[in-house]
């Protein structure tokens, strides 16, 4: 792999020097307007994977606008989205389903992007925020603000604080950058268990109806979202995607050993730290909306990695796949046992659990690199 | 013999009988506390008077209520805590010995979750909670145990103790999610087991204890029979065969016993994690690696941990109560981290 990367790097330089060089195999050369000597290389597989995931997302989103206790044909749904058609459909689509769709889309993208960043920086595909306890930390702190323990902060900042604390504890216990493989993960599971118990403790101390209203949120549900938290998440996710794209090149190099990455001119520690901060912030904002739906952060990047090429880190692809998975799970949870609604966290756990077991138990575990 | 071991180890260690009696004395004190303290308004002093049979100077109604609380609520609870603690401690030690993994804990590995799931499925299919629970829970636990054993025998997993735990945690999570799905869909099941599924000793009746005593006795007898072969097995497969034991048979028996014990405790108290990790861990730290010594110490240590946690769970959030599982997680997760963090996992 390092050999390939060096080759690609060399080819890139060559193409800059001599204008008329064929682009490397599997990429498109996109000349930048205004500067004839510079061009962008687009990975064919990555582009087509993202297009595929994007169209999947559009389909699922449209389905989730149409399906429900009141069925609305697709064309009517699109018209209602634009504010036309009968008032009932407009109300259902715009007021009820669109808000829920946006919440699912944004949380799914944020969880999966954070998962992809964490997996890459820890060089371990199991090191997703949900598994190492960050979700639970954010939930525990956010529950404090929900149940009103005299702290009148909104869920998002509290979730941020909780995620930061849980991350600090897990990484502190794991002794640094988490390169000790499975032990790091189990230490994270322990931290997660403590925070989960703290959440229960908090819920046990308040009146039963307050606890009941907070319950679906502690298993992960799009039902209890607050509009405010969703818009904060939207802003955070937009910033996060830009920042992740800026880190993308360094992240691709981070998959090699520290020595190689350093040799290629990446400031490894700084890059890790930035990616970690980004992942923690995205996870916390998403938890503030939907509660801990951690398995999306594991499966989203996994799907994206399967679809796109092995050359880079599929950050955008992960976000898209996560959004698809979240919206589809929420839709399934709403429809399967209607009128009873299954929280999206339970749906993803049922779908994702076997997959996670397969990753763990298959005979020759392939590493992330 | 135990003094000899202590001497060889070169540490100041109490002998096994004295440690055992010391822990039993602690346990007796904790049991007494468990009878005296509670979330209600019956104070420790009144409770003590009731135990001595000399409560007077109060209204008749109060006295009646107090006697009911102590004898019908706190006494069964303490007795059940005693049995549950013993069973979980012993089951943890046995499973760890046979999986050769200090992290193999029935609650963490999905055995308790398996039996809880089995009970939920049986209820959904129309069984009634009162009659079937124990045997169904034991069947579920057996399935969970077999999964654990199969995973431990898989190449690459068996010699990486941490990976087994990870797989177990995932399995528990999956079964937990399936169980909550059943509870959401089926209202009747949810009503029947809502307070049982969180893992707690509260509100259990003495009849529940009667229902599991035969299983516990069976588990105890088999444990006594296999302790010696198991200790031989710890020296290696060949040594065990050379000493005239049948390793495969011993393993099967251990799995059976663990399923019986964990299934029975889950049936009465719901799934409780981490006890089977903490108790053998402490027992090994006190008594050394010999499984027979560990098992002896698990007997008082298990109830000690369970009943103490139960007392705290009553007192923390008065006047309501905390599920026992919350407290055991608070105690057990740090121990889990401690074990994982130690540079070299002790091999069993």
TrEMBL record, chain A:
Localization per record: Cell membrane
Keywords on record: Cell membrane, Membrane, Transmembrane, Transmembrane helix, Transport
Keyword Ubl conjugation recorded: no
SUPFAM superfamilies named among the record's database cross-references: ABC transporter involved in vitamin B12 uptake, BtuC
Positions of transmembrane segments: 51-72, 98-118, 130-152, 158-177, 184-208, 228-248, 273-300, 312-332, 344-361
Chief location: membrane
Membrane-topology descriptor: Multi-pass membrane protein
One Pfam short name: FecCD
Family per record: Belongs to the binding-protein-dependent transport system permease family. FecCD subfamily.
UniProt name for this protein: FecCD family ABC transporter permease
Gene source species: Modicisalibacter luteus
